[in-house]
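Annex B, item 7. Sequence and structure tokens for protein A, then protein B.
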Amino acid sequence: MSKPKVMIRGIYTTALTRFLAERGYVIAQPSAATAERFNLNKVHERNVTIVDRPDKQGVTVEGEADPAESVVLVLLNALPDMIVRELMLPDFLEEQESGKFSLQTGFLSFDVEFPYGSKIFLDSVRSQVTATINNHHLLKIVDPETVDTYETLLRSEPKRNEDLSSLAQKRLIHERLTVGRNLQIHHVKPDGSIIRLSEARILSFKGRTLSLQRRIVGDGSKYDGIDVAKTSTDYVVTLAEEGSPTLKHSYYAEDGVLKGEFYNINTPIEFYPEKIRYIDLEIDVVRRPGEQPKIIDSDKLDEAVEHGYMSGALAEVAKDIARNLASKLAGT
């Protein structure tokens, strides 16, 4: 199979162009800026298209089956925490000489998500081509014009990368995470569904860690993995460290008595002005007061790999994190 001819558009264009071109992929129909940046010839044919998802948390890869799958696999093997979901395409109908229509198959579409680690990887790739502040792709989602401004400064003062990156992160995100504000928690499942946990109030933001408080809706059910009943007067304190692969929930009764702890294993937590976001990696660690911690739901993680949502390597990383955390909590 000849190398795919790939057209790329969106905030990941420079990084993906560099990444794929280095591996022999043909960059088709480049924008004027991309053609100039990479000194590309105008290749008009394409059999794969890569465009931003509407939320810009990744891309859609679409095209002829073999080349589209090739692009997805080369990304999956390189990016540390990429999530991929194959999308269902409607059947294509083509009119035959007889006047009848026949089904045309052989096209695939993939929803590709770039969590924190993948964004950092692509930041690094982009920085080999042009001035790139830290957390470029994450901040591009928040405010692309301001990122462009900081990178214009960086081009003229390349030694100020850390300084300008810190200023951009502070201005666009950290300064907005003020005590008393409410934040959303986007708990994204491997299949792409988003569970929006109850709104969280910021108790503190120190270093890179948010302390959040949420109310629990008591419906007679029990907390996952802890086997303790929820009541309408319970509350939960959530500790979220930016870039951490774990999220800690501590559940309390109204009188402040701890009911249990739940440690979610996830892709590194991303902070945004109005929310925190991560991909749930299914496996978790739980602990009830006075008891040893235990690992739960590793089978769900295995199922996510079987469905093709993530690489086996990412699943093993998640299992290692869970084992190490359980051992630490147990004091061994």
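Protein B:
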Amino acid sequence: MEVHSSLVNKKMTVVATGDSFITRNLPYSATSSCSEISKILKKSEVRFTNLEVTLHNTEGYPSAFSGGTWAMASPSVLEDLQKFGFNMFSWANNHTMDYSHGGLIATKKNLDEQNLTHAGVGENLAEASSPKYLETSSGRVALVSATSTFHDSWIAGEQRPDMIGRPGVNPLRYDTTYYITKEEMKQLKEIEKGTYINAERNLAIKEGFETEAAEDAFILGPFKFKENQYKKTVTTPNSSDIKRLKKSVDEAYRQSDAVIVSIHTHEMKNENKELPPQFLEIAAKAAIDSGADAVVSHGPHILRGIEIYQQKPIFYSLGNFIFHNETITKLPEDFYEKYNLNLTHNVADALDERSHKNTKGLGINPKVWESVIAEWDILDGKVTAINLHPIVLGFELPRHRKGWPQRAKDRSEEILKNLQELSKPYGTIIHIENGIGVIRLNNN
């Protein structure tokens, strides 16, 4: 792929973080660490984060499904994110529709009023999937954003000449096939016969509302199985979604000097959250083949490995940058009902019940509360050395105070060594130099 001509003999600097799940305003006591972090961010012209909350004052009805916690914050937190220096946001994720279409429209309004570059969500599929642009002194940067983690009803709808579209996210769906032995397949078919699990599907096929599965596949409920000598699970990106993603990246490549692709993914390989799913690896490479300069993923709230593909970085998860999921101030009845609580209970009761009084969940996993800020240059249209700045988010603090980023200092080497191990399977070498991770790219 040809070099973007306008970046020849020019350097563009980019910095990216993972999730900003922000529900509190920056306190005075955190301003010193904010200043230290913002110095890292503001060295770059392009400063990216994933916004993982809706921004409004109960302007949308709670959705029947949430991303785990109904995430709503005051629009004023945008000012705090800008204090850190962010000027580019993805917000296609599993919380985008926590407050249905009203929450989405209100969030979009608040982002637009601040004149911020944001992508991945819109009032129809064309808007949600289209590139959004940031103008910098070194050139124009495009952002394309999608999510693989969402409820089906959250997908943005396509516009038609005779019908408006539907607000929602730019989806990256995926297909899963479970390969099992011949004997296991026989047992599955016996189970299906005796339980009528497929009764509704079989009727839908007869009445023309559903299509037959491929001849070599067997459907059991929502799952697809095929025979194989060995058991395995294979995930692949949905063909129409990957086609749309590639088309958006190709447009962005022709309309800008650099392209960043953001993909929000909670899915994992087998039962290991530290390993990205196969479909994400395929989609990320397809994005770079289509013209992306970097793929930034996030979602599992922990770090994942880094792959260098075609001399371009794929960050399979940059973990958390800000994480305030336990300082939300309001929750719908659905949350209380799930934990057998009633109208006499409050938010603190609900969060205590979910975490078994802070003895289980994300709050007690130290890896959730450490991450890196990724920084790189694009010189002559090529990505050069990547710097990884370790951060911590106050794991040891009570839940109402933890979640703000600060330099890792004493834990830098431990965080970077973990990232070294996660990146080894991709052949990525991370050097540790003065508490910073460095990836050197051979662009000769």
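Comment on protein B: The chain has two domains: 9-121+136-162+165-169+238-325+361-439, 182-227.
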